[in-house]
């Protein structure tokens, strides 16, 4: 499954590292995944679940919270509130560049954060928690022997999963203010609670409390034999399979949504860096998404067409479409049009009909193959029509490009 890597701006102004796992074919839905406390987007559970969901047509955005993984910022300055705010930011980024997430998934403390953020993501129809605590304060048991020191000193280094992290008094104060009971009761979204009876990090009683507090539709699936981190590959695959099957009842596939009205054209084209490689971009226009890149020889990864490839593509497609429209209107026996294009630089002095006489000029060579039982006059007329395509006229006319910084 393709993975697009990029950055977006978090609530604190830091650049947060993200990965979007996409299907090889059409995207049926978008999901947002929140990882466990002090983990990261590339923790095995998150990566395996995202990949498995992508194989089922669900694109999954996972990202590193502030100060974790490849994201900017200091973990010590992050709080449960900032994590929730970053999830809302991630959903907004997905909404603006691809499609709003209709499925929210959270693992461990990420599950609590997803429950807290769900009300601020209106497009979300279904929420999944995996080994989540019913109260975010539960996470403090991981460093319960240092809580008094944190309150007394303001900031203390603790060992979590064998790694050092700094925890501040502000983190304790913030997490104590969050009660999920009201938010779960007012979720108004389908909820799937997944938990292992053998979880010795977050006890299964937490799943019971979440399930009882929630209103229908709600479901519970036991992850018998799985550990808290879903370190078993089969466990992650099972979780992904259940989520995909369960979510089908609640999220409407993108393909089934009504198409945009023709009056909405022309659509904006949004080009954004993926941060995967030096030049790679994700190009979005309406429901369509594609990669742009440079060839390997130019320092890229050749993951998609280059900028001039897209320019030639626009001209070639417009040429063929215009010829087809004319042929159909005139009932000409045109079977197929093939347009082959090439861009190059030439010396101005080599162009007799050009006004510019010095330096270099851009030249586009366009070769048109016309198939069908057409006579010479019909072929000649179609070649004339080729020069009347809108993109051809745009390229030949004076173009005004207005550039400004985003607000």
TrEMBL record:
Residues 47-134 form the Serine aminopeptidase S33 domain. Pfam families: Hydrolase_4, OsmC. InterPro entries: AB_hydrolase_fold, Hydrolase_4, KH_dom-like_a/b, OsmC/Ohr_fam, OsmC/Ohrsf. PANTHER family: OSMC-LIKE PROTEIN, PROTEIN INVOLVED IN RIMO-MEDIATED BETA-METHYLTHIOLATION OF RIBOSOMAL PROTEIN S12 YCAO. This is Osmotically inducible protein C.
């Amino acid at each position: 499954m393709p993975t697009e890597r990029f950055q977006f701006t978090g609530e604190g102004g830091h650049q947060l590292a993200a990965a979007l796992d996409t299907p090889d074919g059409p995207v049926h839905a978008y999901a947002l995944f929140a990882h466990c406390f002090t983990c990261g987007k590339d923790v095995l559970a998150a990566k395996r679940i995202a990949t498995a969901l992508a194989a089922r047509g669900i694109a999954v955005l996972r990202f590193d919270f502030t100060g974790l993984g490849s994201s900017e910022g200091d973990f010590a300055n992050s709080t449960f509130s900032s994590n929730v705010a970053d999830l809302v930011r991630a959903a907004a980024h997905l909404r603006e560049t691809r499609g709003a997430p209709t499925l929210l998934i959270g693992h461990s403390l990420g599950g609590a954060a997803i429950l807290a953020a769900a009300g601020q993501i209106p497009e979300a129809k279904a929420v999944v928690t995996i080994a989540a605590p019913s109260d975010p304060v539960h996470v403090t048991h991981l460093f319960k022997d240092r809580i008094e020191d944190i309150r007394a000193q303001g900031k203390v280094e603790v060992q979590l999963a064998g790694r050092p992290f700094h925890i501040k008094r502000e983190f304790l104060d913030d997490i104590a203010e969050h009660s999920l009971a009201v938010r779960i009761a007012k979720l108004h979204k389908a909820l799937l609670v997944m938990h292992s009876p053998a979880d010795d990090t977050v006890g299964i009683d937490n799943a019971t409390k979440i399930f009882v507090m929630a209103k229908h539709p709600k479901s519970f699936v036991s992850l018998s034999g799985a550990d808290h981190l879903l370190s078993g590959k089969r466990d992650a695959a099972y979780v992904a399979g259940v989520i995909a099957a369960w979510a089908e009842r609640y999220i409407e596939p993108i393909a089934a949504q009504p198409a945009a009205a023709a009056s909405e054209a022309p659509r904006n084209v949004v080009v954004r860096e993926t941060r995967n490689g030096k030049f790679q971009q994700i190009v979005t226009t309406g429901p369509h998404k594609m990669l742009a890149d440079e060839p390997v020889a130019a320092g890229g990864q050749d993951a998609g067409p280059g900028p001039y490839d897209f320019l030639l593509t626009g001209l070639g497609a417009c040429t063929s479409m215009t010829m087809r429209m004319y042929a159909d209107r005139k009932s000409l026996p045109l079977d197929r049009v093939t347009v082959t294009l090439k861009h190059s630089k030439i010396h101005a002095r080599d162009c007799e009909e050009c006004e510019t006489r010095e330096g270099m000029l851009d030249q586009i060579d366009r070769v048109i193959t016309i198939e069908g039982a057409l006579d010479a006059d019909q072929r000649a007329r179609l070649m004339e029509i080729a020069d009347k395509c809108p993109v051809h006229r745009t390229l030949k006319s004076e173009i005004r490009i207005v550039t400004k910084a985003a607000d």
